Give the backbone structure.
Amino acid sequence: MFRPVHARHFLARFVFSVTLLLTLPVLAQAQLSFSLVSDFLEGTPNSTLTFTGSLTNNYNSRLYLNSLAGQFSSASGDVTVDTASFFDYAPVFLEAGQTYNGNIFDVLIAPTATTGQTYDGQVLILGGFAIDEEVPQAFRDILVQVNAITVLPEPATGALALPLLGAITILRRRFRAGSR
């Protein structure tokens, strides 16, 4: 299905793409190793996915992790990187040689997200040797698939419904027999 691209979405994707392209040569020399347990997660509309992995400081001094940027190429707001979650999970800095393993960031799937769609995106970690430095340190490509919500009744619901249906059937037969 074709969706119109709004100017601000296009501009935001364009700026993010240009920034990423300009930082690729810097990232090739970056000393922050960034890996994810899985770069592909699945979820349903109105859910939150948590990407986990590791960050390793290969520099010989303290490295501050000051920001996370994220963008999906065609999400139009259906799927967004929750950059604030990075500050809830990751440490403020890594000492030389230190590794952090755990949750890194969240992705939010809007209630209106199209099911059956796979969204490709990128996340970029910015930081440096000072608390206010925002030099690109590492990036990863990610994929998010939005699946349909499947509603399955609880087994106890079926167990409660069977005796009720049986009672209704018996009453119905008695009512029909009495009206003859």
Q: What stands out?
A: DSSP finds three helices and nine strands in the chain.
